[in-house]
Amino acid sequence: MNKYEIMFIVKADLEEKDVKDAAKTYESLLKDVKAKSVSLKDLGSRKFAHPIKKEVRGYYYLINAECNANTIAELDRRMRIDERILRHLIVKEEE
After folding, report:
1. Is the CA virtual torsion 3, 71, 16, 55 positive or negative?
2. Nearest to 65 by CA among 85, 42, 93
């Protein structure tokens, strides 16, 4: 298993409950596949330097997890089709 940092931006025009649900969805996905040391950090709302999909603000979240590549591939697939997510980035941490 490898360690990963997953950062994603949720649309700011959603209700606060929907924003938190979007973040909890991916945290629970990792916990369901028994990923190790899953931690979710809310980095708050920020204004973008440039609009992303006509949005000017977004809620940033960071998840640190230790899991396998298949889990990351599924997470990446789901984030790409989730309309609540503006952008996401998955980085494998070096050991």
Report:
1. positive
2. 93
Count CB-CB contacts under 10 A for residue 48: 14
**For residue range 49-68, what is the model confidence (pLDDT) as tens digits?**
999 999 999 999 999 999 98
CB 39 within 8 A of CB 26: no
Both tokens of 57, joined, read 């603000």
* pTM of structure: 0.91
Q: Which residue has the tokens 């028994």?
A: 34
Regions of the chain with pLDDT less than 70? none
Alpha helices, H only, the chain: 16-32, 69-81
